[in-house]
Amino acid sequence: CNNYVDYNSTVLQNLINNYISYGDIKSATKYLKIFNSYFSKTINPQNLAIEKLAKNDSISSATYSYLKANIDWNISQNNLDTAQSFIHTMQLLYAASNIKLQTAQARYLFTCIESLGMHYKSVGKFKESESTYHKTQPYINDEFFKMKFHANLGILFYDEKDFKKSLLEINQALQYFSPSTKSISFFMLSTLKSELLMHLNQEKESIDLLNLLYSKMLEIPIENIQLQQISYKNFNDLNTIRHISLLIKSANICELQYDK
Q: Using CA atoms, how far apart are residues 222 and 215, in angstroms rounded to an integer?
């Protein structure tokens, strides 16, 4: 049944991605071999050209999962030529798909190309990273991915210490959040903006933004917010690793102010 093929492929792709995220490459490699065998025996037993698999939605969706698993694994192993070859194959599948499927699957191409850009950034190849991030643009079809595009560039420019360019991109990314958002991504990007303002000697704007951010996140009226008096009990269940990272970065911003 084609629906089972799609489901099984999604499970295998997620499993491989999780093992890579945990740094368990041995297990990721084991399940990639299983997935590749499953693809050749069940999904594409006739060894058809990838473009021909676009005709069936479930088979096509399973193929995207297969390609993404191979792209993620090869990036993790620094096999960048192989990863780019799989990305090219995914682009061929995308081009052969109908508009409905393209709309649904554009996220695969965005995230795979984005992962390659992040890898370049992680090894200090900033120009290659920026160029790669721009290659995600044809696959942006909603506001979430517009936000991610600008956020990726903003973080890249931050790592390059080009704080003015970084601030421009972070401001662009923040425009895609609603005023009532409680998204941790919004809080992380807003904290980065506060740090950028501090680096650019806009101290008052930086601290005012940090006050506003914590007022919004902790639901404390802005007129009552005092950063130095915030304690653990104010955070309720806001105790994920991203919230902890946000606290550390906030402390770094205050340290920057002290150093000035």
A: 5
**Residue at 231: amino acid letter:** S
Q: How would residue 260 be classed by pLDDT, with cut points 50, 70 and 90? A: low
pLDDT, one tens digit per residue, over 83-138 is 999 999 999 999 999 999 999 999 999 999 999 999 999 999 999 999 999 999 99
Q: What is the pLDDT of residue 56?
A: 87
Structural tokens at position 86: 């799989």
Give how far the C-alpha of residue 1 lies from the chain's centroid of Cα atoms, to the nearest Å: 32
Closest to 211 measured CA to CA, from 186, 228, 198, 232: 228
Q: What is the DSSP letter of 178?
A: -
Q: CA 151 to CA 242: how far, in whole Å?
A: 16
Q: In the 3-class helix/strand/coil scheme, how is 225-241 assigned residue by residue?
A: CCHHHCCHHHHCCCCCH
How far is 54 from 64, CA to CA, in rounded Å?
10
Contacts of 163 (CB under 8 A, 6+ apart): 157, 196, 199, 200
Percent helix / strand / coil, the chain, rounded to 5? 80, 0, 20
Query: How far is the CA of 238 from the CAs of 214, 216, 232, in angstroms?
Result: 12, 13, 9
In this prediction, residue 244 carries a pLDDT of 81
pLDDT at 1 over 60: no
Q: Which class for 172: exposed (0-12), middle (13-18), buried (19 or more C-beta within 10 A)?
A: middle
The interaxial angle of helices 25-38 and 2-22, nearest 10 deg, is 160
